[in-house]
Amino acid sequence: MKTIFLDIDGVLHPSTVGELEYGPRGPMVTGQGVCALEAKLAQIVSGKTIDIAIHSTWIYMFDARTLRTEYLPQLGKVARIQLTNRHIESRALRVLDYVRRRHLSRDEYLILDDAPQEFASAVTLLPRLVACDPVRGIDDPRVIERVEEFLR
């Protein structure tokens, strides 16, 4: 099954958007524009059989259900939301672990992230990495083109 590895900050909203707060229900990310591009990604992947594997640091704060219902409701309606292993500190190693455990071939996954330096030590992942501008995220024709090409 095709899988998009998704970072959140700098991909679904500018990296400067959002404040982490702690309330009675635990951590929450607040602020105007948080996950503002989620609907755009949901529209692009709609009608495709695809997993969205979150490799963002958000996995340390939220479980898959919370991410799906609170932050990614439209994406959760059109794709299966999965999390990478939160016990692995490195983003690249989390992606590699997920790829290995799911036996994904190179053409079965794409990585969206605004921090390409996180993947410098995992050279096998670099051809699958779409480096997003941390201000524009997926609101960039180059990024959208790569995602649409991957989904064909």
TrEMBL record:
UniProt xrefs under Pfam families: HAD_SAK_2
* The name this protein goes by in its record: HAD domain-containing protein
